[in-house]
């Protein structure tokens, strides 16, 4: 995951741009003019839609993004350009075509329910002149990019000629082209590196009823052959992602909770492009994309995902190495803030955890049961020596942290140098602070920063000191 966090690939998105416009209000009466609801609008919001949602996902992951499209010379077009520039997207390859309407989809929402949507857009194909302007512009810059995404929403920008022209430019320059396809005829995408159809789209395009692994493999092979792809890929919703490079491989989904699948396809292609651009192979890329999708479907509305969120999500599934669970003060501060924003209950405890034993494990399991996320503050070697004597610790900080982080009950481990975790608790401000039962009727460091203190009794006869004494006695 570290290489992904430290990378800024340059990715070009070509496709149908649009503005998603929301009118939020309340509805308390019926119009006297007609049997329709009257909505009192309280606020308006706008976000990038269509290929713009792919752009938002790429920016959230940390990519440097450029965009090429065709818009109208209208107010919506000017608004869309400003929205792109505000998030730092290069727009020099966006063409303005006279007489074309820039897509804007307006939704009226009252009492958390969409009542009406009205669209203002052009859906006919762009002109040959616009196609040529895009290709002329991209021919000068295509080699600068690590990957190109064609995001087809069927609004007329990605014509047959434009798709074929861009794919040829990319193949000549050695740049991978990834396509989120539209319709049932994928021939215009021939020569791309891969496509990302969902199961339904793949069935329509191949005329194969995908009902088992055999039919899935047949559909993947047909797409690979007929579209001249390097890798064939089909997204399977809750079943994950299937790929065919040299053989069929299925990567199961890792979503824990599904609140909304809106825009999940945009997250998938953005994360695939990002991972491939930094040198990941298709297996690593599919696994990363599954994690990204797992995060985004747990959010409401068209959402984006960051590398940090993916890393934390992977850690929560305990599919990552222990290293991913060991955090610095700076890291854990950001992580806790995100969990709080998502309504998660944070639990904190601390200790030396020198020689891990069953008493430790049961204590940590009970601590985790008090909330959603368990953070363990770990005394450093110097801190342990000051508390326990010069012969301790038996195991160094790195070893103790790694073993703790491998426990299912532990989400994150944060080593600290001080004798007490006062500063760490002050920063985290946990919902629940957990200490051992021997702290009954004693002052507990950091309680003023926690919402609640819980004491957990230790397992009789189990302690690091007794373990050491037993070893020495033998």
TrEMBL record:
Keywords: ATP-binding, Carbohydrate metabolism, Kinase, Multifunctional enzyme, Nucleotide-binding, Nucleotidyltransferase, Transferase. Residues 1-320 are annotated as: Ribokinase. One of its GO terms (molecular function) is ATP binding. ATP binds at residues 198-201. The active site is at residue 266. It comes from the Bacteria. Pathway: Nucleotide-sugar biosynthesis; ADP-L-glycero-beta-D-manno-heptose biosynthesis; ADP-L-glycero-beta-D-manno-heptose from D-glycero-beta-D-manno-heptose 7-phosphate: step 1/4; Nucleotide-sugar biosynthesis; ADP-L-glycero-beta-D-manno-heptose biosynthesis; ADP-L-glycero-beta-D-manno-heptose from D-glycero-beta-D-manno-heptose 7-phosphate: step 3/4. Residues 348-461 form the Cytidyltransferase-like domain. Residues 10-304 form the Carbohydrate kinase PfkB domain. GO terms for cellular component: cytosol. InterPro entries: Bifunc_HldE (IPR023030), Cyt_trans-like (IPR004821), PfkB_dom (IPR011611), RfaE_dom_I (IPR011913), RfaE_dom_II (IPR011914), Ribokinase-like (IPR029056), Rossmann-like_a/b/a_fold (IPR014729). GO terms for biological process: ADP-L-glycero-beta-D-manno-heptose biosynthetic process. CDD domains: RfaE_like. Its EC number is 2.7.1.167, 2.7.7.70. It catalyses: D-glycero-beta-D-manno-heptose 7-phosphate + ATP = D-glycero-beta-D-manno-heptose 1,7-bisphosphate + ADP + H(+); D-glycero-beta-D-manno-heptose 1-phosphate + ATP + H(+) = ADP-D-glycero-beta-D-manno-heptose + diphosphate. In the C-terminal section; belongs to the cytidylyltransferase family. Catalyzes the ADP transfer from ATP to D-glycero-beta-D-manno-heptose 1-phosphate, yielding ADP-D-glycero-beta-D-manno-heptose. This is Bifunctional protein HldE. It comes from Candidatus Sulfurimonas marisnigri. The lineage of its organism: Bacteria, Pseudomonadati, Campylobacterota, Epsilonproteobacteria, Campylobacterales.
């Amino acid at each position: 995951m570290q290489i992904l966090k430290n990378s800024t690939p340059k990715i070009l998105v070509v496709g149908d741009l649009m503005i998603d416009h929301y009118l939020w209000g309340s509805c308390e009466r019926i119009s006297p003019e007609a049997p329709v609801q009257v909505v009192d609008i309280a606020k308006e919001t706008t976000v990038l839609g269509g290929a713009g949602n792919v752009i938002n996902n790429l920016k959230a992951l940390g990519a440097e993004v450029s965009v090429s499209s065709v818009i109208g010379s209208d107010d919506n077009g000017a608004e869309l350009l400003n929205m792109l520039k505000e998030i730092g997207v290069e727009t020099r390859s966006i063409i303005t075509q006279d007489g074309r309407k820039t897509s804007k989809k307006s939704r009226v929402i009252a009492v958390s329910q969409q009542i009406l949507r009205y669209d203002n857009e052009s859906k006919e194909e762009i002109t040959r002149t616009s196609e040529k302007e895009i290709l002329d512009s991209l021919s000068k810059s295509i080699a600068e990019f690590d990957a190109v995404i064609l995001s087809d929403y069927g609004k007329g920008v990605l014509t047959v000629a434009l798709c074929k022209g861009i794919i040829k430019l990319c193949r000549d320059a050695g740049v991978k082209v990834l396509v989120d396809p539209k319709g049932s005829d994928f021939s215009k995408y021939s020569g791309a590196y891969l496509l990302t159809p969902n199961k339904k789209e793949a069935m329509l395009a191949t005329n194969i009823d995908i009902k088992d692994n055999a039919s899935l493999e047949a559909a993947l092979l047909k797409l690979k052959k007929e579209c001249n792809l390097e890798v064939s890929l089909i997204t399977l919703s809750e079943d994950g992602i299937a790929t065919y490079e040299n053989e069929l491989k299925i990567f199961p989904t890792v979503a824990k909770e599904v609140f909304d699948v809106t825009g999940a396809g945009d997250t998938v292609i953005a994360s695939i492009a990002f991972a491939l651009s930094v040198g990941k192979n298709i297996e690593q890329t599919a696994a990363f994309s599954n994690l990204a999708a797992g995060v985004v479907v747990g959010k409401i509305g068209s959402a984006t995902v960051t590398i940090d969120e993916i890393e934390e999500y992977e850690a929560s599934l305990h599919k990552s190495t222990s290293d991913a669970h060991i955090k610095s003060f700076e890291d854990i501060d950001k992580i806790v803030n995100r969990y709080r924003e998502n309504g998660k209950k944070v639990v904190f405890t601390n200790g030396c955890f020198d020689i891990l034993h069953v008493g430790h494990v049961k204590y940590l399991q009970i601590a985790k049961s008090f909330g959603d996320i368990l953070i363990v503050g770990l005394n450093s070697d110097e801190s342990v020596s000051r508390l326990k004597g010069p012969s301790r610790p038996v195991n160094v900080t790195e070893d103790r942290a790694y073993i703790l982080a491998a426990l299912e009950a532990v989400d994150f481990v944060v080593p600290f140098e001080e004798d007490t975790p006062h500063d760490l608790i002050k920063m985290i401000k946990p919902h629940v602070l957990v200490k051992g039962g021997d702290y009954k009727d004693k002052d507990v460091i950091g309680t003023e920063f926690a919402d609640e203190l819980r004491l957990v009794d230790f397992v009789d006869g189990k302690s690091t000191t007794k373990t050491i004494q037993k070893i020495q006695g033998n």
